[in-house]
Amino acid sequence: MAMARSSSGPAYPERFYAAAAYAGFDGSHNSTSKVSSKFQNDTALLLYALYQQATVGTCNVPKPSSWKAVEQSKWKSWQGLGNMVSTEAMRLFVKILEEDDPSWYSRASNSISEISESAVDTQVNHYSKDEAIIKNENSFPETKTISTEIGTLVETQDKDVVSEVVGTVVVYDQWAEPSITGQPPKARYEHGAAVVQDKMYVYGGNHNGRYLNDLHALDLRSWAWSKVNFKVENESQEGQSPAKLTPCAGHSLIPWENKLLSVAGHTKDPSETIQVKVFHLQSCTWSTLKTYGKAPVSRGGQSVTLVGTSLVIFGGQDAKKSLLNDLHILDLETMTWDEIDAVGVPPSPRSDHTAAVHAERYVLIFGGGSHATCFNDLHVLDLQTMEWTRPTQQGEIPTPRAGHAGVTVGENWFIVGGGDNKSGVSETAVLNMSTLVWSVVTTVQGRVPLASEGLSLVLSSYNGEDVLVSFGGYNGRYSNEVNVLKPSHKSTLQSKITETPVPDIVSAVHNVTNPTRDVDSELEVGQEGKIREIVMDNVDQESRKSRGEGTSLIATLKAEREELDLSLGKEKSQTLHLKQELADAETRNTDLYKELHSVRGQLAAEQSRCFKLEVDVAELRQKLQTMETLQKELELLQRQKAASEQALDANHRQGSGGVWGWLAGTPGGQKRDDA
C-alpha cells in the first residue's frame, strides 16, 4: 500500500467522516449491523478496526469472552492494527471504501458539502499553509521552480550538458514538462502504460474512485495526444448485446509482438482468476486470451515482468484485500500457466511494488507495501535455479515506498515516485543491477506529479538518446501531466564509482544470490590484480632509475607480495570457516524443515482424528437420543401391559368364582337353576 488515496472532495478528516457515515458508522449501537449488510465480513471487520483506530486510538479494551464470537473477531481486527496513527487509519479507511465501492462519493454527495473539482485544479502543485496544517500529516514543502519559456523545470544540484528535444530545452538528469498538443487523457493513477513504435499507450486506471477503460496514445515524436477508438471482440452468440471492455486499475500493460497485453487488475466485479486481454494495434481490437493450466487468483497491484517469451507474475492484492506473495509464469507461446514453488525465502506478501529483469536471468523485486507499512527491501529470483535471495544493498538506499514506478536502461534500474503512507517520494533513484549500488539522480520539490503514487514510467528514445517518460499519479490530486528525463552518461555510471569486490559485472548479482560461490578464486584474482597494478605503475620509474633503485623496488614488491600471500592465506582460512558454518546452518535448516514437516503431518493426522471423533460423538448423541425415546416408549408399554394384566386377572377371578359357587350349590347357582 502506498500513500493515502482519495478522490477529489473534502480534505481530511472531513472526508473520512463522510466516508464513515456513508459506510454506516454513525455511532449508534446498530451501526455494525448496517456495515455488515453493505460489505463482506472481512471488509466490514477491517473497516470497523480502522474506524476505531481513527476515532478512539490504539485498542486497549479487554478481550471479549470466547462465547461472543462476533465481538472477539472485531477486537482481534482492531488489536491487529497495533499503534497505527489515526490519520493513517483515516486514509486507509477511505481507500478500502473506494476500492470496494468506487462510486460512494457521488452517491453520498447529497449529504456532503462537495468541493468542486475546478477549485481543486487551481491548487497547481502545492497546498496553502492552512491546508498543510490539516491532521493528515501529508504536507509537502513549497514547490521551488525555475520559470522558463518551456514551462517548469525543477532545480537540481548537477549542471550537465544541455540539448534540445522537440524545441524544449531539457537539462540532463532533471525532470521537465514538455510542450504537448492534443486532448490529454483524464487525470488518473494506477493505470497501465507501454511504448510500441514511438508511441506511449495509456490504458485504464482510477479517477475519483472510478475505474476506467479508455485507451490513449502519445506520439513521442510530435508529442501529441490522441484517443484510440477500439472494438471489442464478442465471443458470445449472434443476437446478444455487444461485448464491453471491463474498466480496471492496478493492472500491468506489457508490449509484446506489436500488441499490448493487459494482465490482471482490480475491477468492480472481479473474476475468480487473472484475465489476460490483448489489444491488436493493427485492427484496434481488444480480445481476451484463452489460457491453459491453473490460472492465478485475480488481483491488482502485482508485478508482471516480460522475460523472453514468458511473463513472471509476483504478489499483489486479491479481491478480498488479502496480500499475496505467490509466483506464477505464463508461457506466451503455449499460453500455459505454471505456479512456481521457488526455494529460499520469498518477499513478504505485498502489492504496488516494482520488478525488473537483469541479464535475462534475474528478476529483482523492490519495495511495495502491506496494509500498514511500506518496504525498501530488495529480493532477487534466479530463474535458472528458481531460488529467492535477499542481497545486501549498497550506496544511497531508497526510503520505504509503494506505488512507485521503474524502468531499466541497460543494467541500470530507475525508480520514480511512490509514497510511504505519509508523503510522496521526491527523489529519482537508480540501481546498478550488476553491483547492487544505489544512487540518487535528482530530487523534485513540492507536491508535484513526480512525487506521486500510481504513476507510470516508460523508456523511449529521441535522436538516439534514452528518454524516461512519466505520466499521471496521485498525491492529493489526480494528474495527467507528462514529464521527461534524459539520463546522462554520468547518471548511468554513478553507481559504478563505489568499489565492489566482485570484478565481473554479471557475477555480481550471481554472487549475492549464491552464498556458496568460490570465494577462493575471487580473492586470488583480486590480489593478483592489485600486484599487476603496482608493477604497471612503476614501469616508467624503473626505466629512469638506476639498477640499485630497481633492485630496491623489486624487493619492496616481493615484500608486498608476501604480505598479500599472507593475507590471502588468512582469507582462505576464514572462507573455509564460513563455508563450514554455512554447511552447519544448512544442516540445521534441513533438520528444522523435516521437523516442521513432521509436526505438520502429525497436526494433520490429529485434526483428522479430531474430526472423526466429532463425527462419532455426533452419532453417539443421536443414538442416545433415540435410546431415550425408546426407553420412554418401553415404559409406556410396560404400564399398558400392567393395566391389561390387572384387567385380565379381575375377569379371571370373576369367572372362576361362578363355577365354584355352582359346584358348591351357592345361591348364585340356585338362581341359575331356577331360571
**DSSP E strands, number:** 31
Roughly what percent helix? 25-40%
Oligomer: single chain
Pairing-aware structural class of the strands and helices? alpha+beta
Q: Which ranges are low-confidence, i.e. pLDDT below 50, for 5 or more consecutive residues?
A: 1-8, 110-169, 236-240, 497-545, 669-675
The count of helical stretches stands at 14
What best-fitting shape do the alpha-carbon axes yield?
A: extended
The main pleated sheet reads as: 5 strands, mixed
- The average pLDDT value, as a whole number, equals 79
Cross-sheet strand order for the largest sheet: 10-14-13-12-11
Using the CA coordinates, give the radius of gyration.
Answer: 38 Å
Percent range for β-strand residues: 15-25%
Kindly, what is the distance between the CA atoms of the first and last residues, rounded to a whole number of angstroms? 115 Å
